[in-house]
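Loading example: each entry is read as two labelled lines plus one structure line.
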Amino acid sequence: MNLLNSLSRVLSNRPSSKIDTQSFLTPSSPPLEQVSVLAGGDENVVSMKVCALTRLRVELKSPVSLTLSQLPAPFVGLLPINERVIYLVAAEDISHWSV
Amino acid sequence: MSDSLLQIISPVAGRVLALSDIPDPVFSEGMVGDGCGIDPTGQEISAPVSGVISQYHRCKHALAVRHDSGIEVLIHLGLDTVTLEGKGISSLVQQGDKVIAGQPLLRFDADYLALNARSLISAIVVTNPELLTGISVVAPSLVESHQPLLQLELKSDTVINGSSALVSEDFVSEDLVSEDLVSEDLSSAMTHACGEVCIPNPLGLHARPAARLSDHVKKLGVKVTVYKGVQAANAASVVAVMGLGTVQGDRLKVEVTGIDAESALESILSAIVGGLGEVCQPVEAAPSVTAPSVIALEDEPSLLRRRVVSENQLLGVAASAGQAAGVIYRINDELPDYSRVSDDSRQELMRLKAALADQAMSFQTRIIQTEDVDQADIFSAHLSMLQDPDLLLLIEQYITDGASCEAAVDDAFKQQIQQLQKTENSLLQSRITDLVDIRHQLLQRMLGVDSATDIPDETVLLIKDLSPSLAASLDPAVIRGVITEQGGAASHAAIVMRGLGIPMLAGLGTQCHSLHNGQRVIVDGSRGVLDIDVSDSQLQTFAIMQTARQMQADRDLAQVHEPTRMRQGSLIQVAANVGCLADARQGYRLGAEGSGLVRTEFLFQSQQKAPDENQQYAAYMELLSAMPGQTLIIRTLDVGGDKPLSYLPLPKEDNPFLGERGIRVGLHRPALLRTQVRAILRAHAETGRCKIMLPMISRHEELSLSRLLIQEEAHNLGVMVCDVGVMIEVPSAAMMADQLASQADFLSIGSNDLTQYVLAMDRGHPQLATYADGLEPSVLRMIAKTTEGALFHQRWVGVCGGLASDPTAVPILLGLGVTELSVSAPALPEIRALVRRLDEKQCQELARKALDASDAEAVRALSTEFSGSLS
């Protein structure tokens, strides 16, 4: 977190596209545990992967029922691919998350 | 100035971003135009506004819709998606198509894009904001598809003059040049310059470099036209430049008009050579003339096709057995042009209602009139699809929005088809053909087209692809046979043709193009051969042979209940393949000695959920009752690949035939396998007449695990274990037959799959199916390896695939040591009679020669010669 804060101070003076700057200025603490609980617990989560800047790909062993209102911030969208793969869409760049 | 508003609806659901928040300066800095971004939570892009598809990038990720007002809306799906070169994206429209707001334009695999592209954040941008006085985002932060997204305030002259005044059709827009540049005062300073440049960008001038070029040109304040061959584009227009569809190495001609055109040209050429913001390597220009060698390759017919039996024979896929002579009659199933718009939606809705009622009546009549259960099922399914409330609602919506009845039906069905395409359920996807068929019938009805009228007698119908509905409408008294350019043996149409007893040859491909009306042909739907331009003497011979075949069939039928012994007395069991209760009854009537293959998929298909143990037990007992005193070899569920189930989600696989199918499905879902095994064991405990057969065993462990499961369930039920056999369908099983036979009670060769896997040829492939012949020596050597392995452990070997029903193959199979043949029920009399005429030693000699032959043709020649010597 300290490193990110330092970086944000440096980067705030640098011209950059807005979303990049935002992601460093307001870094989110990855709510991965909450996601795991919503996904039926660690034993039901085959894998999690951050991709496409704003997406968390969650692969499940068995299907779970999820609604938008259950999602922790910064997630604001949900895209089920099939019964076992869902994407949580974040309102910010989460590509720096370590999953 | 502004006096009119235009609303843009959201092309996809998702999170709305300000244009400036799109993490790509080409969009965020407004180089492409003005609008917003969406991070999608859907997988379909629909038209944000009614209009014409003015541009569609070859990589499918970017397209533009031009409204009647001249406003052009670009949708750029994701960031850096151009690098995917279209993979993961399906186009639903083409450049030039008229579309209605909300109409699906493309569908994308969000999973694939997320895993392979930088981002899915998509730009929705008006590329000619100079036609606007204002633009505002009116959507909430999370927008649904088709919800209002942007509100545009149009300049009054935009509305009055329309597109013709402001945006030229060829994308070379004079008015995009500043008025100042062409004013009288400055005309004397105007100069003209022209140059050429080679595009270094690996993916051509896609959105980013096109936007950079546009930005550069606008800053220079000159008029620039770029030419790719005869195509021209205004370089200030991102969409027009993208629309050139350039690729790396293309040579562009650049024309500049304006003040100090020479230096502007130099600057532009330098920017293009520099990659327009992309890192590029210098490239050689593509040759201006297409390499002639490519044309030559495309024009030269396939060498494989030359392996036709003779000049007057064409090979196709044997789709419905039997032989017929007749005259070619080609049906053109194409629809006439129709208007896509109507200003009388009430009238269109009435037409729709009438057409739907007529079509429903047609399906109901077919369901009532047909005696074939399969056909009735197909048309019941068609009726349900026709009456689908969502589909009807969609059609009505399109009509209300101004579409004609025909266009509404066409678009709504297309949308449903696209929804099926996006599912990962192969079974649902396989219903696409049915939807296409229903759409076609409805359109034919609305347009007053009837494609199957006035067909002359003794016709061999030639058609590009046969729909199930047209197939069912054919009269066997008139139609002698059918040949199709497309399709295969597994299509619904082929099933209908088999039910009608009409020989059919499918998948002839471009060979059909040489056929013409009136040509005399003989169709052999059993061998997949079409004799063309047959002579009178050939027809006479054919008639004599048909008579002989019929007489032989009558004799064979009279002997169906005699034992099946070869001349030396060896007993060969000839059983029936059973796929439903009717098969079991027919097989018993035609003298089957039990069933060597009960395909249990019939219990699982067309169901909402898997049948429970009691339902399966009852079904097996019913089959056993239909074949009193006889043994049934019941194959456990064989799905996956080409035989999926709607309620059993199987993972999407790049190559399902090499994926989870056969016993692998059961071992991955033991509860499914256990339920079935328990039902079979209970039926066996009661009758003593069941054996279990395991499909697609490829490794020894699969057999040992299955046996263990069967033993556990027998123990749990307190019953005896029945015989357990293994299907030999893959090369690994044949090679390991000796080890498998040590644990199995019998081996049964599934010759269709074995052929497919040995030769690596899809048996339904229109170009390859004719070569996927089970009599290829490579396949026969696998069978020999199997019988050799089984013999080591004193186990018997059967064949339950198509080879067992092929009279040419039977002597060879018996010569290789096969002692059980499980055949399609109608073939029972012929195969049983044939076995009685065979000499064991002669068959062994024939088999030895067949193993040494070079190919299936040579083997068939050997066997034909052998059959001729039989008394």
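Residues 160-186, 286-298 of chain B have pLDDT under 50 and may be disordered.
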